[in-house]
Amino acid sequence: MAHSHEDEAPPPRHQAIVDRLAVWYDLLAAPSRLHAAERMVATFAMWGLIIHLVLIAAAQVIGGQLADLVGTTWLAAIYTPFAFILIYEVLLLILAIPESTTRALALQFQIISLIVIRNSFKDLAYLDHLTDLLVDRQAQIALAADMGGGVLLFGLVAIFYAVAGRPSSYQTALRMPTQALLRFIARKKAVAFIITLIFGALVVHTGGLLVYEAGLTLQGQAFTPQALGSPTTPLFERLFTILILADVLLLVLSLRLSDAYQHLFRGAGFVITTIVLRIALSADRPLQVVFAVAAVIFGIAVLAIYKAWPRDPWLEG
User: What residue intervals traverse the membrane (predicted)?
Assistant: First the structure.
């Protein structure tokens, strides 16, 4: 069975809350605010890199707990601006949810690919000297896995974009401006706004925890790996868990717009893809790359079949 239909109007109070949250989303996602956020992130990334480089220079002289905190190799500083860039990418991902589920998934792929390629810098930062790479077999394998995985994911994301750009008559029909579609978009905006608030709270919590642990390390009360290990990893793990729940909720809500089999399967497939990406974030390398690549390939396959789905011959008859 494949058809679209408008659902019954929700209770006025419920709809009023959804509409209010949708308005707040529109204010947050306004192009002027996104451009301002982009400039702010660029500034933070630049100053983060400079400050980290200065701290590394001081650590090379002072050593001790400061060296444990910020590292002693210059490449460790590259990790800092990447953290700000990834946080901004996550914000774009959340704000893209009402625009397109496919685009939101594409941004998830971009984030995991950036995390993998960022690991290459971390591999090098753990070396006392770059020439150590010539004799450290384990470091060679880790770097090769991250570099190869990053490039492979980069290419797969490009393929996903190419598939997403293919026309689909069924998808075009779903985007016709009906009352049911407008209500669904409002609900997606409400969900996106709530996730943005949660993500903001997670960023503040992660930043506070980072400062606290850095203070303990400087006081010699705790040992923190170079460059604080991967301070943003728990943040992304929690976010992807939230995205899984949000995807399931949006899939259920979308059934009021259409209960077509291909639409349901695509939604379920995208949820599974996000789950595998969440597993990839928690996996050790090189298994992380394997899960990430598998997730993107699965997402490409689901979208390609959905785009090529034929018309229902029984409805046409």
Answer: 41-62, 74-97, 104-121, 141-164, 190-212, 239-257, 264-281, 287-306
